[in-house]
Write a structure and sequence with these properties.
Layout (H helix, E strand, L loop, with lengths): L10 E5 L19 H13 L4 E4 L4 H7 L7 E3 L4 E3 L5 E3 L7 H12 L6 E4 L4 E4 L7 H15 L3 E6 L2 E6 L4 H8 L9 E6 L5 H9 L3 E5 L8 E3 L2 H13 L11
Parallel strand pairs: 1-2, 1-10, 2-3, 10-11, 11-12
Antiparallel strand pairs: 3-4, 4-5, 6-7, 7-9, 8-9
Helix pairs in contact: 1-7, 3-4, 5-6
């Protein structure tokens, strides 16, 4: 599987964040966004007519805090919350389940475990075990039992050293599909770049749309293209922006 070609005009760009635009940190709060990346995304947003969105497991508010000065279309918590290009907010809260009770149960199950981080995002609940990988089996077993007891309204979303409890029916693929019905994304060819198993939903959706799905890393994937790592993604972005003087911030005649 080869690296993707430089996209032509009329593309819509969708990016995962952690492991794609940023190196993964030990904890969600440990990542740092450099000014160069913010400038790159700002230039791409301008050159694409605004057809750039970030698609993440993070909350929309947390994404805004990571990228100060940018006001991008965003999908947070795996599509459970979304801000469209016009600034409209869309949320899909849990239905058919006692969500406060479920969150309290998950937190109580892991509150005394060493090296585990329980992250309450509001619409999802993530249990991180990156600081103690030996807990992976116990985390997955306990959460599978809790979700099975809660019924079909909730599901598990595994990721890199994390498992999330989330309402069923929404994912990164559904978020991309919603964006693609709206301007400035509508009518363009989607490009989605991600690194994790959570991004496979987005890859499959983009494939169905005839777009370019790009996997970062060596794991098995439904994506049509591949990049090696975060530096490769950043270099690819600079390459596709470098051919346009406007994107380089230069004056045009």
């Amino acid at each position: 599987m080869k690296a993707p070609p430089a996209p032509g005009a009329e593309r819509a760009f969708f990016f995962d964040i952690d492991g794609t635009l940023l190196e993964i940190a030990d904890t969600p709060s440990g990542v740092r966004v450099d000014a160069e990346l913010i400038d790159t995304i700002r230039r791409l947003h301008a050159c694409s007519g605004g057809a750039v969105a970030l698609i993440s497991g993070r909350r929309v508010a947390d994404i805004d805090a990571l990228f100060p000065g940018l006001r991008l279309p965003l999908a947070g918590q795996h599509g459970l919350e979304r801000r469209d290009a016009a600034g409209g907010l869309h949320a899909h809260p849990p239905e058919g389940v006692d969500w406060p009770w479920l969150k309290a149960l998950v937190k109580g199950t892991f509150c005394t475990a060493q090296g585990l981080l329980v992250e309450d995002k509001g619409l999802t609940l993530a249990v991180h075990f990156r600081l103690n990988p030996a807990e992976e089996g116990r985390v997955k077993t306990a959460l599978a039992r809790i979700v099975a007891d809660a019924g079909a309204a909730v599901s598990l979303q595994p990721g890199k050293c994390v498992v999330e409890v989330k309402p069923s029916g929404r994912d990164k693929g559904t978020a991309i599909a919603e964006f693609m019905t709206e301007p400035p994304f509508k009518g363009r060819r989607p490009v989605f770049i991600g690194d994790d198993v959570t991004d496979e939903y987005g890859f499959r959706m983009v494939n169905e749309m005839g777009g370019d799905s790009v996997k970062v890393g060596a794991e098995e994937t439904a994506a049509r293209w591949r990049m090696a790592d975060v530096p490769a993604v950043r270099a690819w972005l600079e390459d596709i922006l470098g051919g346009d003087p406007a994107c380089r911030g230069e004056e045009t005649a």
